[in-house]
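Q: We require from you a single protein entry containing the residue sequence and its fold in token form, and nothing else.
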Amino acid sequence: MRAFKYGTAKDYLLAMNVVMPDGTLVPIGGKTLKNVAGLDLLRLFAGSEGTLGIITSLRLKVLPKPPARGVLTAYFDNVHNAGKAIISIYKEGNIPSAMEILDKSALKAIQIFKPGTGIDVADAMLLIEFEGTSSSVREQGQRVSSTLKTHGSRDIQFSQDTTEMDRLWEARSVVGASASVLKEGYNRVYQGEDICVPLAEIPGILLELRKIRDKHGLGCLIFGHVSIGSLHPAITIRKSQAGDWEKVKEMAREIHELAIRVGGTVTGEHGIGVARKAFMRIQNPEAFKIMEKIKHALDPNNIMNPGKIFDA
């Protein structure tokens, strides 16, 4: 959620101990903040989903908590304009700690699932967080507010009140759980829900996701961490209807292929696991061949998390 400013978990890894498939305990990394001695095994094992070895301990670097933060909300009558505003925010040199998007369906679902959050309904809403000193947070909020206005945003609100900020983040936190309340008899399924695309592609992707949703006639909330291009289309279906299961498979395929087509990835956060194995091969078949060779070399008997990422 805050990866654009702070990076992801792999950026804070200093060292780890790994139990290999043959039982050997291997120490990797060290105490230094920089270490380029050899291949980057820290990231290899961190991203392996347990398929290469078992991580038994970690050494992490940590950052001090920022002294102040502020949250800005902005509503748009056109989701495409919200996407363009995101790009402009970065082009003008702003680095918010977080930036989330909620489309109309997501906003409606939140209102039903958790009344009283104060969330309104529009075609899209941006929830933007800033961190730093109190004065710098206010300055960032003012600059970004000006940018949002040039893209047709309305009802821009900025707050540094802890209660208000917590209320807004609580509303954001329930969007996934709220997906099933929008259409009676529909439940969320986790298919095609974790794409990540280049920032420049966000305005177009938001429209394309809606086209895919409308084409198949299923429920689908669109939200995500747009600060890093991570989008989570939350598809809902009638699980008792066999036809809906076929539709969701096709819908997920189209979403994944859309992400790949614009230079994105089929998973930005949740991992490959079992559900995205086929799409991993489509995204980068040559790179996947190298991964298979590494897996076979380190775990020839396939005892480490078998069936995940790689076929048994």
Summary: The chain has three domains: 3-63, 68-178, 185-295.
